[in-house]
Amino acid sequence: MNLINRPRRLRSSQSIRDLVRETNLSAADFVKPLFVVKGENIREEISSMPDNYHLSLDQLLKEVEELIDLGIRAVILFGLPEYKDAEGSSAWQQDGIVQQAVRSLKNNFPELLVITDLCLCQYTDHGHCGILEGGKVKNDATLSRLAKIAISHAEAGADMIAPSDMMDGRVAKIRQALDQNGFTEVGIMAYSAKYHSAFYGPFRDAAHSAPAEGDRSSYQMDPANSDEALKEMKLDIEEGADIIMVKPALSYLDIIQKASLNFNLPIAAYNVSGEYAVVKAAAEKGWIDEKSVALEILISIKRAGADIIITYWADSAARWLND
């Protein structure tokens, strides 16, 4: 007698599907990116990223209170400075917008995990992620500036620094600077495999960080490469990273999986602005259901091996999951 193997038995009801589900999402998985600006009562929607905003400090507090109520316990901050110069010097000022935001958040929500993005692109007048000389980004000259930014963020109360510049040796330089200044408890979430992706456009609009000339292909990774990602992650771990990140997420699920299989460290994945914006645009046209598609994307990122998901859907996804 030939018996039929019946996997459908475990799909026959919502109760059984929930019971045997291999991958689960929760609000605790999410980190919400937030864009802070100086001023008062500013809550300006970012046109290319609907439902995300430029926030002044007073509005930032209101936003974070809502996130905490939804069960989200971590944010990553991006600042838009009042001035830019060739060095990006506003990035390490004690009264810089990110430094002010960190102090305000930690004073009001001490249990919130505050992560700060660390890069020069928003702060330089040329829009590159490092010191520019003769049209080229100078790696070693950039490292000391990154260390200064890290110290200023730590002094403000940041729990974790997230260098996104992709300069060689920056994790070691930042770790050394933090330790020497007494910030041994401040962690590093390294953008370890950050690709030279076409999916960053809406973010550059939001952060006012597009390069004035040229591109970032000499320091961000070639999308064709995967073995190189493992090398970059291994180097960052050796230099002292506490968490390694893959960015973008959706087009790089294979890289997330390789990271999870090769390294015994928490893996973060950045579900980037372009991945978000294309779904929002299609949903606005009525071509897809945003909730279903967004949750499918997020579950795929976690299924690939991500422990942490940085996503512009964090608050929406938390509401959907709570429902």
Write a short abstract of this structure.
The chain has one domain: Aldolase class I (TIM Barrel, Alpha-Beta Barrel), CATH 3.20.20. Helices cover 39% and strands 18% of the residues.
Please provide a written account of the structure:
It is a single chain. The N and C termini lie far apart (46 Å). The chain is an alpha/beta fold. Helix 2 (57-69) crosses helix 3, helix 3 packs parallel to helix 4 (139-156) and helix 8 runs parallel beside helix 10. It has helices at residues 14-20, 57-69, 97-108, 139-156, 170-180, 201-207, 227-239, 253-262, 273-284, 290-304, 314-322; strands at 30-36, 43-45, 53-55, 74-79, 113-118, 131-133, 136-138, 160-163, 187-194, 243-247, 267-271, 308-311. The mean pLDDT is 94. An 8-stranded parallel β-barrel has the order 1-4-5-8-9-10-11-12, surrounded by 9 helices. It has one domain: Aldolase class I (TIM Barrel, Alpha-Beta Barrel), CATH 3.20.20.70. 39% of the residues lie in helices and 18% in strands. Strand 6 and strand 7 form a beta hairpin. It is built from 11 helices and 12 strands.
